[in-house]
C-alpha cells in the first residue's frame, strides 16, 4: 500500500499517524483557566525534548477554525502547567476529563480528582497520580494548517520540579512496573506493559569483537 498524504483528508492522515506512532505516552496536563478553574486534559502527542535542562513537549490539536484548546490557551496566558503520568489506577477517570466541558468548569473537580498544591508553579497537581512534572513554558509554537488557522500548538515546557511517589524511586531510577504506565494506541484503544526485555548496546570495539571487522 502506497499513500500520498497530500491526496487524502487531514482525518485520514490522523488515523494513519496514530496507528503508526505507538504506543504513545500520555501527558495528563493540569493548567489554570479563567477564574482559577483547574483544567485537566490528556494528550498523547507527548515526549521528552531535552535533558539539560529537562524539557518535555505536548502537542494540542486546535479546534475547528484554528481555535486553541483550553490547555494551550491557559499555558500561553499563565506560562505554567503540570504533567501527570497516566497509570492503570487513574486511566478511567482521566479518560472522563476528555469530555468537552466549558472553560469555566474544572475537569479535575468534575470527575472527582483531588488537587494538591505544587511547589514551583501555580497550577495544582492531581493527588491520585503517582508522578508529576511541574513545568514552566519555554516555547509555544503554532504548527501546520495555515497562518490564520494553525492545525496544532506545540508546547515545550522546562521541568522545574519532580514529584515521585516514594515507593517508585530507587537509587535515581523509577520502578516502571510499580508506576504501571498506560499508553495510547489507535482509536479508543490503550495498552499497558506486557513482555519486557533488556538489550544492552555494544561499543564499537565489542561489536567488532562479536561480529568481526569488515575488511577495508
From TrEMBL:
<dbReference type="InterPro" id="IPR002563">
    <property type="entry name" value="Flavin_Rdtase-like_dom"/>
</dbReference>
<protein>
    <submittedName>
        <fullName>Flavin reductase (DIM6/NTAB) family NADH-FMN oxidoreductase RutF</fullName>
    </submittedName>
</protein>
<dbReference type="GO" id="GO:0010181">
    <property type="term" value="F:FMN binding"/>
</dbReference>
<comment type="similarity">
    <text>Belongs to the flavoredoxin family.</text>
</comment>
<dbReference type="Pfam" id="PF01613">
    <property type="entry name" value="Flavin_Reduct"/>
</dbReference>
<keyword id="KW-0285">Flavoprotein</keyword>
<dbReference type="InterPro" id="IPR012349">
    <property type="entry name" value="Split_barrel_FMN-bd"/>
</dbReference>
<feature type="domain" description="Flavin reductase like">
    <location>
        <begin position="19"/>
        <end position="176"/>
    </location>
</feature>
<dbReference type="GO" id="GO:0016646">
    <property type="term" value="F:oxidoreductase activity, acting on the CH-NH group of donors, NAD or NADP as acceptor"/>
</dbReference>
<keyword id="KW-0288">FMN</keyword>
Amino acid at each position: 500500500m502506497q499513500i500520498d498524504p497530500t491526496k487524502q483528508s487531514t482525518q485520514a492522515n490522523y488515523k494513519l499517524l496514530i496507528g503508526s506512532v505507538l504506543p504513545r505516552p500520555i501527558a495528563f496536563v493540569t493548567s489554570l483557566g479563567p477564574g482559577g478553574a483547574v483544567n485537566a486534559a490528556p494528550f498523547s502527542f507527548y515526549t521528552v525534548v531535552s535533558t539539560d535542562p529537562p524539557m518535555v513537549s505536548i502537542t494540542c490539536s486546535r479546534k475547528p477554525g484554528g481555535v486553541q484548546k483550553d490547555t494551550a490557551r491557559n499555558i500561553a496566558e499563565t506560562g505554567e502547567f503540570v504533567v501527570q503520568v497516566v497509570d492503570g489506577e487513574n486511566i478511567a477517570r482521566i479518560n472522563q476529563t476528555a469530555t468537552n466541558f466549558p472553560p469555566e468548569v474544572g475537569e479535575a473537580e468534575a470527575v472527582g480528582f483531588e488537587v494538591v498544591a505544587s511547589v514551583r508553579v501555580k497550577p495544582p497537581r492531581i493527588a491520585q497520580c503517582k508522578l508529576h512534572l511541574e513545568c514552566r513554558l519555554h516555547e509555544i509554537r503554532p504548527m501546520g494548517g495555515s497562518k490564520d488557522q494553525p492545525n496544532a500548538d506545540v508546547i515545550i515546557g522546562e521541568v522545574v520540579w519532580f514529584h515521585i511517589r516514594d515507593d517508585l524511586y530507587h537509587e535515581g531510577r523509577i520502578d516502571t512496573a510499580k508506576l504501571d504506565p498506560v499508553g495510547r494506541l489507535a482509536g479508543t484503544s490503550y495498552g499497558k506493559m506486557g513482555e519486557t526485555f533488556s538489550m544492552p548496546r555494544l561499543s564499537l570495539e565489542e561489536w567488532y569483537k562479536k561480529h568481526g571487522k569488515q575488511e577495508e
